[in-house]
Amino acid sequence: MTYRVGVIGGGQLARMMIAPAVELGVEIRVLAEQEGMAAALAASAVGDYRDADTVLAFAREVDVVTFDHEHVPQRVLRALVDAGVAVHPGPDALRYAQDKLLMRTRLQEMGMPQPDWAAVTGPDELAAFLDAHGGRAVVKTPRGGYDGKGVRVVSTPDGAADWFTALAEDAGGGALLVEELVEFTRELAQQVARTPSGAVRAYPVVETVQRDGVCAEVLAPAPSASARLAATAAEVGERIAEGLGVTGMLAVELFETVDDRILVNELAMRPHNSGHWSQDGAVTSQFEQHLRAVLDLPLGDTSPVAPWSVMINILGGPSEGGLSERFAAAMAQHPSAHIHTYGKQPRPGRKVGHVNAFGADLDDVVYDARAAAAFFQD
């Protein structure tokens, strides 16, 4: 039997599912938002993922529907489920990745460690939170933010004035999410895969390095992580996956605090930037694992293939010429680095590819990955 997986969204995550799908004998089809996107090789349809009829027509040709992003509206997801389509992750899980206020509420009910937070509907409520938390806080729009968008550090209620105005103009009203400004030593990420039948498997916890709100580097496993920290991160990831009913890959972004706690920052229910290292550095990549999970196939081994793996994002790309012109020089100088590009045109700040390297010495691996990535940036 040939399985057919439909991916909604034509970005780089869908693109990176193509190779493992071919290797597994899985037929992969993509509903892309527009022509020429990163996953064009597998794009069997182009259309609006917000239109239920378009998505239903696409879903009729596959065995299971999954996602390149979390932005498909709940009404479309519910229409798929009502039509008998297998959707992984399903709408009941995805809503917690789509709405940060729902996420915080549910994680609090589950007893998960997280920053102090509140839903605020206006400047007075934000002012009260600031007064109670040292005069500074993080304000987030509950929906639609990514890569640092929809996130601000504020020290006065005026810092979110335009967002409150937008809420007031919205007929549905609503609230912003405000969180304490966590004093952390570093950011971590825990990835977990879960199947519809309930099998769960965790990857090693990794350290992520952010620049301007965008993930720039990932070190796997997280350096100097104690056995206790690694076990706690895996337990948090597994409990969240099971408690929210996640199917497929789950990434839990974490803060490691100055007093050696870990706190949940955000969730992503799909392959995630923090797991790109696994493409070359783990026995089973997150992309293959996601396909296995949504098809309810046995999950693969998540063990690293070397003591250290490092992923460096290529952000922006060269100011002149294309990425392809830089491959030969990068390969010649760094033959052990693995270069992955997304078929995107260079643009300041844009994720256009990444480089993976792995080996026995962390300093050597970091150097190799950074130096190879530098060939693609001016």
Describe the structure.
This protein has 378 residues and is α+β, with helices and mostly antiparallel strands. The protein folds into three domains: 4-87, Rossmann fold, CATH 3.40.50; 116-180, Dna Ligase, domain 1 (2-Layer Sandwich), CATH 3.30.1490.20; 184-374, ATP-grasp fold, B domain (D-amino Acid Aminotransferase, Chain A, domain 1), CATH 3.30.470. It has helices spanning 12-24, 52-59, 74-82, 91-98, 100-109, 123-132, 161-169, 227-244, 278-281, 286-294, 327-333, 362-374, and strands at residues 4-8, 27-32, 43-46, 64-67, 117-120, 137-140, 151-154, 176-180, 184-194, 200-202, 206-211, 214-220, 248-257, 262-268, 308-315, 338-341, 351-359. The strands form three sheets. Strands 9, 10, 11, 12, 13, 14, 15, 16 and 17 form a nine-stranded antiparallel β-sheet that branches. The model has no long low-confidence stretch (mean pLDDT 95).
